[in-house]
TrEMBL record, chain A:
Keyword list, A-Z: 4Fe-4S, Electron transport, Iron, Iron-sulfur, Metal-binding, Repeat, Transport
Residue ranges constituting the 4Fe-4S ferredoxin-type domain according to the UniProt record: 290-322
Gene Ontology annotations of biological process type: lactate metabolic process
Organism: Acidianus infernus
GO terms, molecular function: 4 iron, 4 sulfur cluster binding; oxidoreductase activity
Protein's UniProt name: Lactate utilization protein
Length: 386, 294
């Protein structure tokens, strides 16, 4: 058996039953998912208004907020904030990957570390991620041991997983303490308060948002929700459908750190970051939102559940889609952000994805639409399916 | 590792064939209609095969040539000569006759269009040629109108799916119904089978419980596993990817067959494409339900 087959079968057999169990034990999750879908649609129906409101709310909190159209604009702004010769820690952000932020910052002469364990492993291996929430699932435990032996030492192919994690933990703790800038994505952003929600298990995102003096959050405009109450739902739904419920940490950030301990007068900063920056990203999303079928893809909350039910992903997953986007959601998102219609061509409309998607996205229909666009010269590849 | 075929070229060839022969490949129409003996020609209720059971066993042969589109073009005119083997055709014909018999036992005497029966256009829809599919749907709807057809009984998931989607492209009042909605089992069967669901029947067309009901009433015990035959977990056979990338299609079939083998060495399918795609990989016996419970 190929190593991908072994790795993906292990992951499927672990993940799929876990999600069923979570949904059985916490029946309110499905209700929350419905509410989340409605709230996200409300934003997509009035996107400009909510982008404006979000930018203003972040500024009201003493943060900085930007709206960028593409990769180049995003890199420019991040580059200006970070500068050169700095240590940067990154919480797992697909949008940062999409925009080439790490590579760009490295090219400016910064030391940049991925701090999510999976992301750290693929950074070390110099490989693209293979799953949106478990980027290193193509690696077996044995291959991780081998990689860490080469890069950090202290463990090998036969070590226990706990010992492998400990080696990385020790290495990265030092980086967190020394880091000048922390960069994260966002699971949800509340338009009315400018708050950013992040869900995680490792504690690396919490470190990234609090330890360095500067926190930058980069997120697609589709992550906006009307209110903080709506935004708070997202981490619960996302983690449940990822089979990781309850999540170990949910982080809420509204501007730079603050205190009102003296005369109840709120001043900034306190112990956490002095600066907070939110970068809202278009990069194809606004155009997709104008297309009634494609818009559905913008509802995706990146839970990664569709991957584990998809026969194509299971067969060829780690090379299907434009990194960091993979699986059924990745076939949609490769088109949205890169104009690449090729991954969609691989949809065999098995339909499992639409059955399990918490946002009820009819993924095969979206992919059928992208196929049609691609076959009629709308895609980047212009029919060159050779 | 994977290599997508030149789909736009393939699309052009399919459209060209459909315009000429009402079939995606230039098939001898007698191959399609040879199963029907004494069905009346036409009428307002017809059984509609779209030549799927009949021709599907020979399609694999074309797929092998798709990666080099030029040899595919050369091969097309020869396609009339390339037809399923006698035993493959006998099997397909038996299935179709069993279905008709089951319909008749339920009091339905369908007509049939014989060599005038057109293909449904499913392959265009499934490959993503929506515009071409829409145009073709218009033609087929008017052809059915000309023939006075009002009710169409489909016998496979791909055709049923394609027909139920015509309305998105052309207004019509044809009634589309699948044979599984009309028949009862006609044979008592004993023993254990596992089942490979059709993706389209199961997750798009709401027929999963219909055929499972028939199977279980017939006396068959289905061997199931929530991770392999559940509604959300039972995977595709890989067949629809054949024209796109045969290697990936085969890899999916191999994965699927391996999972199913764990449950039983006897496998039921409900779709001619699943049968053909899984057959080379499944170590055991595969049968269409129409060979078993009717
Ligand atoms: S498409 Fe649906 S199931 Fe797939 S990652 Fe997005 S929200 Fe999850």
């Amino acid at each position: 058996m190929l190593s991908w087959d072994i790795a993906v079968n292990r992951a499927i057999n672990n993940a799929v039953p876990k999600v069923y169990k979570v949904l059985r034990e916490h029946p309110y999750i499905e209700e929350l998912a419905k509410r989340l879908r409605e709230a996200k649609l409300e934003v997509l129906n009035n996107l400009e208004k909510y982008v404006e409101e979000t930018l203003q709310s972040v500024k009201n909190n003493g943060g900085n907020a930007y709206y960028v159209h593409d990769e180049k604009e995003a890199q420019e702004i991040v580059g200006k904030i970070v500068g050169k010769g700095k240590i940067v820690v990154m919480g797992k952000s697909m949008v940062a990957y999409e925009l080439g932020i790490r590579k760009y910052l490295e090219s400016l002469g910064n030391e940049v570390w991925e701090t999510d364990l999976g992301e750290f492993l693929i950074q070390q291996a110099n490989e693209p991620p293979s799953h949106i929430i478990a980027p290193a699932i193509h690696m077996t435990k044995e291959s991780v041991g081998k990689l860490l032996k080469e890069k950090l030492g202290g463990v090998d192919e036969n070590s226990k997983v706990e010992d492998m994690v400990a080696v990385v933990r020790k290495f990265l703790r030092d980086k967190f303490v020394k880091a000048d800038v922390g960069i994260t994505g966002a699971n949800a952003i509340a338009a009315d308060t400018g708050s950013v929600l992040l869900v995680e298990n490792e504690g690396n995102i919490r470190f990234t948002t609090v330890a360095p003096q500067i926190h930058i959050a980069i997120a697609g405009v589709e992550k906006i929700l009307p209110t903080l109450a709506d935004a708070m739902i997202e981490p619960l739904v996302q983690s449940a459908y990822a089979g990781l419920y309850p999540p170990t940490y949910v982080n809420l950030t509204s501007g730079p750190s603050s205190t009102a301990d003296i005369e109840h007068n709120r001043v900034r900063p306190a112990h956490g970051p002095k600066e907070f920056h939110l970068i809202l990203v278009d990069n194809g999303r606004v155009k997709a939102n104008k297309d009634n079928v494609l818009r559905e893809a913008l509802l995706c909350i990146r839970c990664g559940r569709c991957h584990f039910h998809c026969p194509i992903y299971r067969a060829i997953g780690n090379i299907w889609g434009d990194p960091p986007y993979s699986g059924p959601m990745g076939a949609m998102w490769s088109y949205i952000v890169k104009g690449d219609t090729k991954p969609a061509m691989y949809c065999a409309h098995s339909g499992n994805c639409k059955e399990v998607c918490p946002m009820r996205i009819n993924i095969p229909r979206v992919l059928e639409h992208i196929k049609n666009l691609g076959l009629h010269s709308q895609g980047k590849d212009k029919l060159d399916y050779k | 590792m994977y290599h997508v075929n030149n789909l736009s070229e393939i699309g052009k060839i399919l459209v060209d064939n459909l315009n000429r022969y009402y079939m995606p490949f230039p098939v001898d129409k007698k191959v399609c209609s040879g199963w029907a003996k004494d069905l009346h020609r036409g009428g307002d209720t017809i059984i509609y095969t779209s030549c799927m059971y009949q021709i599907e066993p020979a399609v694999g042969m074309f797929l092998k040539f798709l990666p080099s589109i030029s040899s595919f073009k050369v091969l097309m005119p020869l396609a009339r000569l390339v037809k399923p083997s006698k035993s493959q055709l006998d099997r397909a014909y038996k299935i179709l006759n069993n279905i008709v018999e089951a319909l008749e036992k339920s009091g339905i005497k369908p007509g049939y269009l014989y060599e005038e029966e057109p293909y449904s256009g499913a392959i265009l829809l499934e490959m993503g040629f929506l515009e071409e599919f829409g145009e073709y749907a218009k033609k087929i709807v008017s052809l059915f109108r000309e023939k006075g057809v009002k009710k169409i009984i489909t016998v496979d998931p791909h055709t049923h799916n394609a027909l139920t989607r015509y309305q998105e492209f052309v207004k019509h009042d044809l009634e589309i119904v699948n044979y599984l909605e009309l028949v009862n089992y006609t044979k008592k069967v004993e023993g254990e089978f596992t089942i490979h669901d059709s993706c389209l029947y199961s997750r798009f067309l709401g027929l999963r419980e219909k055929y499972r009901g028939l199977i279980e009433k017939s006396g068959i015990k289905l061997v199931e596993d929530e991770m392999i035959t559940g509604k959300d977990t039972s995977s595709c056979c890989g067949g629809p990817l054949g024209p796109v990338d045969l290697k990936v299609s085969e890899k999916i079939a191999e994965n699927r067959a391996k999972d199913l083998e764990k449950l039983s060495k006897r496998l039921l399918v409900v779709c001619p494409i699943c049968y053909v795609t899984l057959s080379p990989h499944f170590k055991g016996e595969i049968m269409d339900i129409a060979e078993v419970i009717f």
